[in-house]
Every structure is written in C-alpha cells, then in structure tokens.
Amino acid sequence: MVFRTSVGRVYAARSTDDGRTWSQAAPLAHLPNPNSKIDLVSIEPNRELVLVYNNHAKVRLSSP
Q: What is the pTM of this model?
C-alpha cells in the first residue's frame, strides 16, 4: 500500500500474505508530497503500476 503522510513524503508498506500482516511503513523512493491525495493504479495488460501524486515539497509560510 502507498499513502500520504503529514511529514512531507509518500510512504509505503508491503504485504506478502494477502494483507494479513504488513511491513513497517517507510518513505517510498523519497517522493515529496505535501499531504495531498495520491492514487496507485494498475494498468492492463501487463499490470504495470502508475502512481499519481503531488510532486511538491511542503512549504511553511512565515507568520506576519
């Protein structure tokens, strides 16, 4: 599974037993993401995976 986080990165966890147990979550290839939605889609016929995400680092605005 892949998921967004509030730490500015896309994270992933893996399962080898049909989702009964999962690995510890870790950053996915250091992909930046400002906690916005992501989507992982399987493309037929080769079942290639396509990840759609916001390729933007989180920017903190300074207080006035």
A: 0.73
Q: Which residues contact 55 (CB under 8 A, 6 or more apart)?
A: 31, 32, 33
Amino acid at 33: N
Answer whether residue 61 is part of any domain. Answer: no
d(CA 44, CA 54): 24
Please check whether residue 41 lies inside any domain of the structure. yes
Cis preceding linkage at 34, omega within 30: no
Distances (CA, A) of 3 to 16, 35, 61: 18, 9, 25
Give the tens place of pLDDT for each residue, 5-31: 888 889 999 999 999 999 999 998 888
